[in-house]
Write a structure and sequence with these properties.
This protein is an alpha/beta fold and 398 residues long. The protein is 36% helix and 25% strand. It has 2 domains: 278 residues, 3-Layer(aba) Sandwich (Aminopeptidase); 109 residues, Alpha-Beta Plaits. An 8-stranded mixed sheet has the order 1-2-4-3-5-16-6-15, sandwiched between helices. Helix 1 runs antiparallel to helix 10, helix 2 packs antiparallel against helix 4 and helix 8 packs across helix 10. The longest helix has 21 residues.
Length: 398
């Protein structure tokens, strides 16, 4: 296997410039979630170029490709990348700046897709040197509910053939290029959107006894819900409740009729997540009623929490140490951010790891910003490492 590792490294180096070109093309032509039509066509053109068979049109813009080694029915490993961009106006001054105004690859999905294409090219050129099948999943709509992963699963992406494991990677601007990070077990939280409408009776602010003040009711609801999370939630389950928007269209001397509140709820346990939904709704409605008003409490259920399978992740981390050296592999902290790769992790043993993309001298900004960018040296790491991880997974479970 050491000889195969060296072959992968050599091929990753050989295609480095090509994959930079792929990434820059994708960066110049970003498309929003579930509208990745040209992106999908471009990915298909590269798969055609590499002579890798595929099926397109899954959830309209999704693609699944298969690389069959010797004895292809022995085992299957899936690799996933996402295609969509964000509704952000890019402010980078680079030759490959987004040409689609108001749309930008500010979350690194251009890196994910180009990396998987590079990995696919490497694996396809080595398919006579391994047993099993590699399933490539190019997924639309990671950024918006209900998430492209859930829709692709519903259309059978994890069947025919069924993968034994699934691997995904995501850019990590807090980590330097050339390094990667792993965490087994709970890693990323579920994500629910909360929309609350508090109804009262507006009027003159100097005469509150004649009104039902929805702003006062809302303040009680917000404080009480925070106490619910801190006092009812078991201490072993991480959770976050945050409200980012409160709108009450009154004035200094006007109490409004209604207040709208929006927030997010994150948790690391699906059973308690469901219980919390019921408790939050009941508490908010009860507080509003007890103060003479009413409350419409709506929860838009989002992605589940992401669980990295311990054995899959252990082996992936070991593979990274072999490929990059122990000094370039770190342990990740728990994150309360969310990813729809979580849907895959709830069904199939999974590993979702982080790819360092930072270059301190360039002062790159974080994800979802108008100046987000990456050190493209990370692309040489991402293509070869994912190929090596995939082959190690195939070998380990054969």
């Amino acid at each position: 296997m050491d000889q195969l590792l060296q072959k992968i490294k050599a091929k990753a180096s050989e295609i480095y410039d090509e994959i930079i070109g792929v990434r820059r093309h994708l960066h110049q032509h970003p498309e929003l979630s579930f509208k990745e039509y040209q992106t999908s066509k471009y990915v298909c053109s590269k798969l055609d170029e590499y002579n890798i068979p595929y099926k397109a049109g899954i959830v309209e813009t999704g693609i699944v490709a298969l690389i069959k080694g010797k004895n292809p029915t022995k085992k299957t490993i899936a690799l996933r990348a996402d295609l969509d961009a964000l509704p952000i106006v890019e402010e980078n001054d680079v030759a490959y700046k987004s040409q689609n105004k108001g749309v930008m690859h500010a979350c690194g999905h251009d890196v994910h897709t180009s990396s998987l294409l590079g990995c696919a090219k490497i694996l396809n050129e080595l398919k006579d040197e391994f047993e099993g099948t590699i399933k490539l999943i190019f997924q639309p709509g990671e950024e918006v509910l209900p998430g492209g992963a859930s829709l692709m699963i519903a259309e059978g992406v994890l069947e025919n053939p069924k993968p034994a494991n699934i691997i995904g990677q995501h850019v990590y601007p807090q980590l330097e290029a050339g390094k990667v990070g792993f965490r087994s077990g709970m890693y990323m939280a579920s994500a629910d959107e909360i929309y609350v409408t508090v109804n009262g009776k507006g009027g003159h602010a100097a005469l509150p006894h004649l009104n039902v003040d929805p702003i006062l009711i809302s303040s009680h609801i917000i404080v009480a819900l925070q106490q619910l999370i801190s006092r009812v939630l078991p201490p072993t389950i991480p959770a976050v409740l945050s409200f980012g928007k409160i709108e009450g269209k009154g004035a200094t001397n006007v109490i409004p009729d209604q207040v709208k509140i929006e927030g997010t709820f994150r948790a690391m346990n699906e059973e308690w997540r469901s219980i919390a939904h019921t408790k939050m709704k009941k508490m908010a409605e009860s507080i509003a009623e007890s103060m003479g008003g009413s409350c419409d409490f709506r929860i838009e259920v989002g992605y589940p929490y992401l669980e990295n399978d311990e054995e899959t992740t252990r082996l992936a981390k070991q593979s990274a140490v072999e490929y990059l050296g122990e000094e370039n592999v770190i342990d990740l902290d728990l994150r309360m951010t969310a990813e729809d790769f979580a849907y895959f992790s709830q069904i199939t043993p999974a590993c979702f790891y982080r790819l360092g993309t930072n270059n301190k001298s360039e002062n790159y900004t974080g994800l979802h910003t108008s100046t987000f960018n990456v050190d493209e040296k990370a692309l040489e790491t991402s293509t070869g490492l994912m190929a090596w991880i995939a082959l190690k997974q195939l070998r380990a479970i054969s």
